Amino acid sequence: MTTPEVRIDEAGTTGVRPLLEIRDLAITFKTGGGEVQAVRDAHLTIMPGETVAIVGESGSGKSTTALAAIGLLPNNGRVSGGQILLDGEDIAHASEQRMIELRGNTIGMVPQDPMSNLNPVWKIGYQVRETLKANGRPSGPDDIAKVLSQAGLPDAKRRANQYPHEFSGGMRQRALIAIGLSCQPRLLIADEPTSALDVTVQRQILDHLETMTNELGTSVLLITHDLGLAAERADKVVVMYQGRVVEAGPSLELLRNPQHPYTKRLVESAPSLASRRIQVAKEQGVETTDLLAPAAETLKSDTFLQIQDLRKVYKLRQGLGKATDFAAVDGVSFDVRRGTTTAIVGESGSGKSTVAKMVLQLEKPTDGRILFDGVDTSALKPAELFKFRRRVQPIFQDPYGSLDPMYNIYRTIEEPLRVHKIGDQASREKKVRTLLDQVALPQSAMQRYPNELSGGQRQRVAIARALALDPEVIICDEAVSALDVLVQAQVLNLLADLQANLGLTYLFITHDLAVVRQIADHVCVMEKGRLVETGSTDEVFESPKQDYTKALLNAIPGAKLMLPPEVA
Amino acid sequence: MTRFILRRLLQVIPVFLGTTLLVYYMVFALPGDPIAALFGDRQPPQSVIDTLRSQYNLDQPFWVQYGLFLKNLFTFNLGNDFTGQPIAASLARVFPVTAMLAIEALAIQAVFGVAFGVFAGLRRGGWFDSTVLVASLVVIAVPTFVLGFVFQLVFGVQLGWAKPTVGANANWVTLLLPAVVLGLVSFAYVLRLTRASVSENMNADYVRTATAKGLSRPRVVLAHILRNSLIPVVTYLGANLGGLMGGAIVTEGIFNVPGVGNKLYQAVLRSEGPTIVSIVSVLVLVFVVANLLVDLLYAWLDPRIRYDQ
């Protein structure tokens, strides 16, 4: 690998000392198999008031680098070389006492997952108070309320008396931002501060964070896997890959003119920046009418799946014997044509996954009909339902949770064949081998177990398992949401290939509009159980009719960045 | 919350009826005649036997016996045992002794188990952790009667630190040695439970965030690791209190403690239905109250648990 020039130009900043300067940083982890170098030769400079983003996939060392700067490496990790200069002071090997002085006051942190980073047993106000107290600041009820309301938490006085589980994800993240900035640190480390949130909430929170840090003059080290988001929010971007800094520079410049091969791939596959449907079929010279050009397709392909006025009502228990109705899905109708991809988009709680579950016959609709190939699925007898399941297969979000850890890959993929009594031992093995080929996994994977595979490989196994029964419809419930961008792009390409070769119909459930643009022909936008907009992907993206759709589209990070077409 | 407590207390009724009925029936079904057993080898006149039988309602069918027992219980008239002593008086004698023993044992388990567990958990794999783990395994593996006799011999007889037996003068000091023996096994479990819980919570995200806020180490441990780690430990301790109150027949036997265990053992030997069921009735109440306390403590430790809904 060539080592490109990584030094950020310091022109124009002469005479000002960087707030944080990381030089030749190396971090090693002690593991069962000896020492592993997680970060090597990392360089990074943050000037006062500047926002710098580190971009990279999981395992690239971006979070490790940031944690080293606040002295929070896990117990088995240590800085094995280089310097971390905070305002000229090397804190790479500072004492724990010194770090306790710096944390909160000088270096603040906003962690990644709002669900797990607040202690569930203490009130929000208490968790703010102990921060203020530990850093010698006034910590009365008014001070706490002020800190919380500055972070955009409405009704802060009352909210301070609530527990984390009474907060939504977005509100928790606001509380964490409040805690991170409560002592007005000079440097804020924001580790994927919004990756667990819906896009519109993400946008609000990032906007607010930006306003606050601008007002306070705080420098920000932003860690993210999303290149679009980094480019939009940061002055400079540092790209990390396999523990090294491979490229660094001003955000837009780096995005428009990436030098390192990895950065180039990242820019190409960043879903938020890509603009068109993956056109695999066209490249392969296959009949394209099913896949592209929605107008032509309406004439050619028949309606395969009809959702008519679908409703699902849950009873919410409220005290003894009382219950209120909650319509998770409320009057949803749409058609899915054979050989096409229809995406259902929405934020969490919009009812999109409930629709998927009803189509899969895992939940019974309260009202409405689902016609599959012209047959009402609610009228299916158990034996017919068994046959139906052969034709409709799911792929779920979590490639870690949806594979049985005690089954090896062969058994995982073979199980549906065995359940449906298809073929004998030999023919089933042949089928499994073919499936592994189709999803581009080596035959040697058959004897391995899920924990020996990467996330992308596991999702390929899940796809192979879904394909085992030669289904006609595949329902992907957030099937690529848990994957890194590059892996995500590979899996999306694989799905597009399979569709072209096998004529599959996809129902794609996702919160990620950028992914929709890449894979879908039709889009259904859901909000609070209702279908607010439907149309072909191009229609919806280019001329959205509903405000909600517009808000969703605007919230895609990097959506507004002007990129030359050859990059996008 | 009040509604929850009320509901839990109402649950006592079926539990109470079920357990007493079951125990009463088992005593009833025991082979042998308790009255005949009272006289040993002598053969008393039939008239005496009949009088005794009717005095203890033994001539009645099972359901009548049980019904009369319930009636007596609710009128706070437990009657006499086969030696002619009022049962209520003997319960009032044995329960305070066992309660003292149980509380002392529980305190030993809770304080030392949690403290040792926290230290071991924070330095997992260190020398303290390794030593304590092996030691606790030994304690778990060795049966209580062996531990009891060894402690009695070493601390009671050879070193003379404590009285080898308790006898009539049961108080906090004399009960200390049996309490240590009684608490030792559960101490090992509490220690291991705390250790596992602490070392798991230590890596929790919110603990890292607490450190990032600039809190000192002791504060992070006390406010963020310990409190969250206590939840499973409290469950165990609560369940254990019931067990301790049931009287430790072996420990009470070794140290000659005049407690519930001893009394129950003698009553079983003599097939004294009323005494056995009276003791069991009190124990059922103790169990229910102990579990209720655990549930309330739970809600206090973990605000996510709410009983109102």
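The interface with chain A takes residues 3, 203-217, 219, 223-224, 227-228, 301-304, 308-309 of chain B (CB under 8 Å).
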